[in-house]
Protein 1
Amino acid sequence: MFGLTPAELRQFRKLSSPRKVQRFLDKDIRYNVEQGGETCRSPRRVLRDRLAHCFEGALFAAAAMRVSGRKPLIIDLVAHRDDDHVIAVFKEHGLWGAVAQSNYSGLGYRAPVYRTVRELVMSYFEEYFNHAKEYTLRAFSMPLNISRWDYLGWMTAEKELFILSELLKDIRHYPLIPEGLRLGRIRPRVYKAGCVGQVKH
């Protein structure tokens, strides 16, 4: 299935729910700051290397959810004066949730309680900030089914998948807040909490 080996399939099948996928990312996958994060591993390589930044983690989560019968969906979150973030999303009982790998404690899992994609994305707003303590989330894409990229072998490729991140940038994005809106700085306690467990570059 999907070019995965029997051993890989067995490992993915253990991740039979979004919560299990998130637990695996949190416990077994180190956050990737190697080479400045300038890699784009396939889910196969993430499983083997036990290393992933947010985009690699989103691809891995999407692949795991695909093996369990869900659509492999990702959303691109666009930031100002900060790194973009990519999350894998899923639907249960008509409500949206997310699985994510992040170096910030507040940008990970979301329970499936959000009625719309925008509502889900806005749940990340307060905890999406840079080291200047600025709110940075600005725009988002709609869920993208990455099975459309199966011709690239994205689930099992040994080469870097930078082409996927470029394709993601080219899809339509939707603004979250009016341009130029003055937001102020985040509270020190929120900043400190968001940096708990952070892997240093």
Note: The mean pLDDT is 94.
Protein 2
Amino acid sequence: MPSGQMHMGHSMVIDQVKWFQELGGDVTIAVADLESQATRGVSLEKGRKIALEEYISHYAALGIDPEKTNVYFQSSRPIVQRLGFQLGKRTNLNEFESIYGFNGETNLAPRSSPTGTSR
């Protein structure tokens, strides 16, 4: 989710992703720009800028091979948004509350984004 600067916790994930890539695995970076807008108020334009200038460039600097990496933005994948909508039709509010632990005051916007799992 593009919302700020990278930190040390990101490097552990990148090390693991790099290892999978070195073993021949496919790497796709999903930029949760819709979720960032919904949960943190980051505009899609600013989220794209943060993702490109902060995260993705740092991933390459940490060893992820850009030639073997796919990047997509939630806001640019309507097929994934439609899939999320279809799956959402089969999940009720009680299941959401049990899975994510939120209550009646929780904003549902992040849950409508395809990778919306943060609290």
Note: The beta strands are 27-31, 69-73.
Protein 3
Amino acid sequence: MAIDFKALLGRSPNPYVILDTKFVLVWMNDAYLRTTMRSREDIIGRHMFDAFPSDPKSESFSKLYDSLRRARDSGKTDELALIRYDIERPDGGYDVRYWSATHTPVCDDNGEVEYILQHTVDVTELHNLRQMRDEVDVVRRANAVEARNQDLMAECRRMTDMFEQAPGFVAVLEGEDHRFRMTNEAYLDLVGRTDILGMPVREALPEVVDQGFVDILNQVRTSAEPYVGHREKVILAKEGDDAPSDRFLNFIFQPIFDNDDVVTGIIVQGYDVTEEIAYEQRQRLLIDELNHRVKNTLAIVQGLAGQSFGSVEGSQNARAIFNGRLQALASAHTLLTQRSWGSAELVEIVTGSAEATAGDLIERFEIAGPLMTLHPQTSVSLAMIIHELCTNAIKYGALSMPEGRVSVTWEVEHHEGEEHLRLVWRESGGPHVEPPSRKGFGTRLITSGMSTESGEVSMDFQPEGLVCTIKAHLAPAL
């Protein structure tokens, strides 16, 4: 059966065009004419690039020309998956069109390429849909980036708010001249300036230069080691103040490093402790005044006792004992004064009371126990008990003989979630000990001295030496 291929291609809904080897249009079907919006008389016999002009320097021209040339020269089919080639409209304007083209060489009986069959498919709508999809993807990615940017901005605002609301003063310095990059409100209040961002420290705070703080900043930058200041005095000249003010600061100059561990800046962070120091100075003044008055009172009591009992026959011994107790009380008071009437170290209480009473005999004491502090009231009671025990040991016990010794040890015991002190006074090397026939004032002072401290005192008069055990509930330290 003979097939009329020309008629077949002519009725095809797909655009076909035949070109000779010089790329002159020699035949096209109706579908091609409809697609290109041309008439057969307008384009047949014309060169492809005359009928459908394109800039020889454009990508459209080079892609189409190279594909036709490859098909002609190689004798093999050449395909263009996608090419933009705009088509001129009858009104003189141009439609942006995208094509998929196949160029098939048609050979003569000798196998020489005689014609090139171009089959084109208009893929403009498909390309636009693909572009829309890409644009949707771009929009989606842009929305995702925008959401991330919004999160970063919110996080930045939170960090800025935290920076501004930091309980201490904070500033960030950058560069070799230490320019202010960031400051919080507390820092501006401290230095008494409002507009220092971008300024080097030397210009923003000239009064600190001679105080050595710029040199310290240079040292931190050079050494890459932080500098910590504790209660350092800084003289600041605030705007509007007639005279500079003295401030005391706890602060740190912390170097900032980049990814290569090179110092790029310094964080300044700290607290103004001026009021705290002023309070401590006032407290010290009051405590010193209190200590002075208490000592004067004790001296008056001692003087009154001397005057009252000076003419009483046989009162010398009683007066000495009384004076010793006053001295023990004064010693405990002095220790607490040194501690600003806060908690006192147990080892200091025992050692101080024993030295005040026994003097050089302290060398015959063995004092050992864990480091711990006692409430002021407990400290005074324990000091008085140690004084009485020392006095008795000197008069009747181990310290009355050259070989005698005293051991004072303590430990912390735990009962029902609470801590209790257990202190043991143990004498050895002294005279034979027997329980006293009666309790004197000193013994009663010892055994009742801890009653107000939720504690107890027991005295065991063992033949080889007195053993006194003191137990007391440990109140929280001040």
Note: The chain has three domains: 5-122, 169-272, 332-473.
